[in-house]
Amino acid sequence: xxxxxxxxxxxxxxxxxxxxPGALVIEDGRIAAxxxxxxxxxxxxxxxxxxxxxxxxxxAHSHSDLQVLENRREKLxxxxxxxxxxxxxxxxxxxxxxxxxxxxxxxxxxxxxxxxGWSSAASYLRTLQERARLATVHTLVGHGTLCFAVEAQEKAxxxxxxxxxxxxxxxxxxxxxxxxxxEELVRLCRIVARHGKILATHMRSYSQGLLPAVDxxxxxxxxxxxxxxxxxxxxxxxxxxxxxxxxxxxxxRAREQGLDVAFDCYPYTRxxxxxxxxxxxxxxxxxxxxxxxxxxxxxxxxxxxxxxxAGMAHGWDDLFVAAVATEANQSLVGxxxxxxxxxxxxxxxxxxxxxxxxxxxxxxxxxxxxxxxxLRQLIAHPLAAIVSDGFYVHGRPHPRLHGAFAHLLxxxxxDWGWLTLAQGVHKVTGLPANRFGIAGRGELRAGFHADVTxxxxxxxxxxxxxxxxxxxxxxxxxxxxxxVELL
Length: 487
Known about the structure:
The model has no long low-confidence stretch (mean pLDDT 96). Strands 1, 2, 3, 4, 5, 18, 19 and 20 form an 8-stranded mixed β-sheet that branches. A 6-stranded parallel β-sheet has the order 9-10-11-12-13-17. It has a 3-stranded parallel β-sheet with strand order 6-7-8. It is built from 15 helices and 20 strands. Helix 1 runs antiparallel to helix 3, helix 4 runs parallel beside helix 5 and helix 10 packs across helix 11. By secondary structure, the chain is an alpha/beta fold. Strand 10, helix 5 and strand 11 form a beta-alpha-beta unit.
């Protein structure tokens, strides 16, 4: 029997309870004991004096579906031991015969290369068991992927959930999900409810349409009985910031009325997505190839421009190029779209269209989305889990990919005082474990899997910035997953 004892530290058990001094013993991949007791003399001891001992962190909104198979270390370095992938309607299964259409749809978020795709949840989960060594991975079924893969969506969803997927995700701002009728969602969510699993929804709008979007998802939960997780809740754009308080009131009221609804958010005022998100999603019907054909037709280009401008929540100086596919445009990375238009001596909307044409649609952006006051309101809310929403790009990723959890514990909890450290730990451990049905993880409890992150409360933090987003975090001292020391 292998015994490891973490001694002298302060235990943050993941429930949000006040921390307490104590020891933690790991035996054969499980937590044997946590608290005040005499440490077994045969245990290998690790001195954690002055350090916080917490459950391994859970990233409940991740887009690392492919990178977890490569055992990329960006999340491990932050103390993450569990990830929930398949978010925002993008999953790597069930993949049908038309892989190119799926890749055109998802590669901007999943950063995929080559002929990836799994025919079923079971086949992807088997691959995770074989290859993912740094994180325990749970996956949602992406509604967008489901649309591309099969005609019999309800039957396929039912099969995926039976095979072990933890729920359904929607991406209702992305084609094809943007055009899905409400009744189709009702049919799918009844299946989710029957399996006792969760709907994680990227809603139809987070800007001027925020309140109708929230109402639609709440009504979906009422009609079907499914558990509802609103992904990366926020009010985007200064003229919409006032809508957030009302959105929260509606979610709270629904919760009081018996709906199982909560939300998550990432601890930054800027977001990140694909450039095509700015366009009316009808323009993407038929895929990237059809979009580029439309942009080459003057009348269609004018129509798409008018609809894009009418729906804009940002100014052009609030949107920045994060990644492009070609070498020719690498100098644009980090520039605002307004600045790109200045260099190209054209209107910003034409710069957007020309950039999409040159890059065959493969452009990622950063967006200045929300106010600091709104971000604080979200993070401090008792229904909020904190997530990274991080994804990989061929360029400059959002710093949340490298730093979200260390930034939460260091800057948000310690420096800004928006949460106590116990609350911050709870929002990335016990809370998401309960929301997503992740059994045996998220708490320092005897019998649970020995996922443990040890960090220094005085030095934990992330130096990653929007200009230098790939700097590793500080203050994470030890990380165990299933009792194996990974860091």
